[in-house]
Amino acid sequence: MASAKTSLNRRSFLKTSALAGGGLMLSFSWLVGCKPSPEQAHSLPDEWFDLNGFIKIGNNGLVTIMSPNPEGGQNIKTAFPMIVADELDVDWKNVVVEQAPLDTEKYTRQFIGGSQAIRQGWKSLRMAGATARYVLKEAAAKAWGVPSGEITTEAGVIYHKASGKQAGYGEMAAAAVSIPVPEEVALKAQKDFKIIGTSRKNVDAKKIVTGQPLFGIDHKKEGMLIAMVVHPPAFGLKLKSVDDSAARAMPGIVDVFPIKNMQDDYQRQFFDTCAFTELVAVVGKSTWEVMNARKALKVEWEPFSDYSETRDNGTRLFPAGLESTEGHREHMAKKTGKTVNVLRKDGDPEKAFQNAAKVIERTYTAPFLAHNCMEPMNFFADVTADGATLVGPLQKPEFTEKTVSARLGIPLEKIDIQMTRLGGGFGRRSYAHWMVEAAVISDKVKAPVKLVYSREDDMTSGIYRPTYQAIYRAALDAENNLIGFHVNGGGIPESCIYANRFPAGAVDNYLAEDWVLDSNITTGSFRAPRSNFIAAAEQSFLDEVAEAAGKDPIDFRLELLERAKNTPVGDNNDYDAERYAGVLQLAKEKSNWGEKKAGVHRGVSAYFCHNSYAANVLDLVFENGNARVEKVTCAIDCGIVVNPDTATNLAEGATVDGVGTAMFGAFTFKDGVPEKTNFDKYRMIRTKEAPKVIDVHFVKNDIDPTGMGEPAYPPVFAALANALYQATGKRLYDQPFAPALEELSRSRI
Amino acid sequence: MAVFNLSVNGKKQQVDVDPATPMLWVLRDHLNLVGTKFGCGIAQCGACTIHLDGTAIRSCQMPVSAVADKAITTIEGLSEEGDHPVQKAWLEHDVPQCGYCQAGQIMTASALLASNPNPSDDEIEAAMNGNICRCGTYLRIKAAVKTAAANA
């Protein structure tokens, strides 16, 4: 690869006001090799010219666009460069995409989570493209001695129409490098987008379908050893002693030793959640040999005492003891209904319930869940006297880099993190204790090491979706108006309540309360945290309230949203009632909601989270006595849709995931021991259980884009529950639903 | 340890490993063919699917000692240019999200179509039911299998 032609000191447009908050940085060293794929129109250029941290242009016009954030299946590695390329005004077929390594100097917010990548990257990505286009135009104006205002571009070619002059971007790239970056640069009008809003294929698809190395677990280096760790078999236990004599004697084994992934006095950060800090590491030449040696270890465990973990967001108690799912249920049942924190109170809810003609009260629960990314947790580490090279899949590299730095005493600038494609994230890879473990092991054995978790290690090492419970109460007056609404919810170990979400704002008398219970089981973000439960509860409950009020479930919601739009109660409502109603109306229209079909049972649900709106109409049928989702109509408002086909793919996936989790998802414990260890016990949705048709529609508007990783997921649960009620006459309050359905079908035989 | 002579993607390969070593790890660790993925290790997820004499098997449960002279095909050897009808259909439907399970899905689908060139929806579901996709791309997988059948 040719060297870049720019110098660093000239580039400082990050400091300009145009980029305030955008955080766009410019870079001049490209740490990742660049090879065009065979489909590319151009061959590899002789020289590359860096126009800014996101773009380099080859002398032959080939363009490389860096994608700074990790790719975990949400397809930002395609969508990010699409945004840059549109403003740059290049032909997509001449674009090569590279994954940028972690570089906090060049980029900001290099992480994925909360469906925020597109939303937060939107302006800075456009700015990167537009700024590069500006310097190319200026270079041409200078070269041709014409006013830059007369210069136009199209698909990577610069034109001066009056003189008939034209040049490819590649021809002007060398000169463009020395053009000063403007204070401000014009962005395209949305009507002029040529790439944004069109469907473009996943840039890594060819590598995926041909089995090329892309994932962390595929990473290799000469002399690399394989490591695995052993963690306590139960939550509530810690390492007491290890007899490794037999394991050490096994073939291929290099070393066996206990490790600590975090020092006791280490001030943990938010993403440093880790259930087991003391582990036994087994290091050997091959995975199979290490797996076998692990079985030969004789490890003793002992109970730990209560301990507190103070992180930057507060202190949490981890009580001693061996917890069971049955005990969790009992504790939550006792806790529920008792006020702990009043989060929001509008009007006089107590009086509303006293005066109600009808009160409906229902309790909803959901279990712990495991993320079960298909690629088990893994990381490569090569720690030497010169620093650390860390390669693998993770969602929050910037945060975990600090943890490694503190743990090994290596300064941040000597840590190089390269991000591989994630074989699924769903929140689990935000908590990268395994990266720290890999680094600690490499440091100890003085060799490059790839740490691999087995499926069992992955499933039983903690960081689950919390278990939740919520009681809902609704007060209807004699005319069936909703005059009071009360939610009291909590979980182990976190609350499930968003107090300012719908139907807050639509009811005069409203009360939201929450509570939490301590546990020594670690939990963390899981696709649409909290929303993934509370949407199921709330939207099932509203269905039941609509029925009690004698109203159509969509009309009932729309009436409430109309109220919230016209005369909102309170001023902290965190949703836009019109956009919320918009997705319900679109789902109603596209599903032909009023139409009745024999044998088809329909449920509706809608939810707002992570800045986007989604509604589902779910059609259920019975085939050979088994419930099967025939069709799900999804209506989504995420603003401008950057890449419609892959956004549709995400909505389809979220729908399948929602049906699967609602039906089967459950992680349980007995005396601290996880009862699910692999896919033979933890039931995942399979193709026979997936909806047959998923019909996705996007609201068309000009609002800046918001995320798609999470918002389509939460409404699915209640759409399914409400359809199951229509089919069976039974309301389902406890997830997962499969056991109750099996019970129901047995009772009918 | 023992020496095994294998035929992998049409090439003769020799490995010196524990006879109980699953083919999955022989491929990934010893032959540097990492397209075959580790998912569960107990034949429940299908990520490690390869072909043994054209039949789809779970390589995590197939000890190298049981392979004998049977021909092994992995995702890397399914086609020379990545242009097997199933691979082309996967690209056409832009199936993958994270992509981790897709090599296994493609190997299962290609074995299905080799034995049943025009499978019904039920037959596709039956064949593909052993392959988990955590991202939930099942509908696109099914559509791609149909496209591959039509184009084969």
Q: How is the secondary structure organized here?
A:
The complex is a heterodimer of chains A (749) and B (152).
Chain A: E1 48-52, E2 55-58, E3 63-67, H1 76-88, E4 95-99, H2 117-144, E5 151-154, E6 157-160, E7 165-168, H3 169-176, H4 205-209, E8 225-230, E9 237-243, H5 245-248, E10 253-260, E11 278-284, H6 287-295, E12 298-303, E13 307-311, E14 314-318, H7 325-335, E15 341-346, H8 349-354, E16 358-366, E17 378-384, E18 387-392, H9 397-408, E19 415-419, H10 433-445, E20 449-452, H11 455-460, E21 467-476, E22 482-492, E23 509-516, H12 531-548, H13 553-566, H14 577-590, E24 601-609, E25 612-623, E26 626-637, H15 644-664, E27 669-670, E28 673-674, E29 693-698, H16 714-728, H17 738-748
Helix pairs in contact in A: 1-2, 2-3, 9-10, 12-16, 13-14, 15-16
Chain B: E1 2-8, E2 11-17, H1 23-30, E3 49-52, E4 55-58, E5 71-73, H2 85-92, H3 102-115, H4 121-128, H5 138-151
Parallel strand pairs in B: 1-5
Antiparallel strand pairs in B: 1-2, 3-4, 3-5
Helix pairs in contact in B: 2-5, 3-5
Highlighted features:
heterodimer; A: 749 residues; alpha+beta; Aldehyde Oxidoreductase, domain 4; 3 domains; 7-stranded mixed beta sheet; 5-stranded mixed beta sheet; 17 helices; 29 strands; 28% helix; B: 152 residues; Ubiquitin-like (UB roll); DNA polymerase, domain 1; 2 domains; 5 helices; 16% strand; globular
Structural class designation of chain B: alpha+beta
The overall average pLDDT of chain A, rounded, is 92
Compute the number of strand runs of chain B: 5
Please name the fourth-level CATH homologous superfamily of the largest domain in chain A.
Answer: Aldehyde oxidase/xanthine dehydrogenase, molybdopterin binding domain
Helix content of chain A: 25-40%
CATH-assigned fold name of the largest domain in chain B: Ubiquitin-like (UB roll)
Order of helices and strands of chain B: EEHEEEHHHH
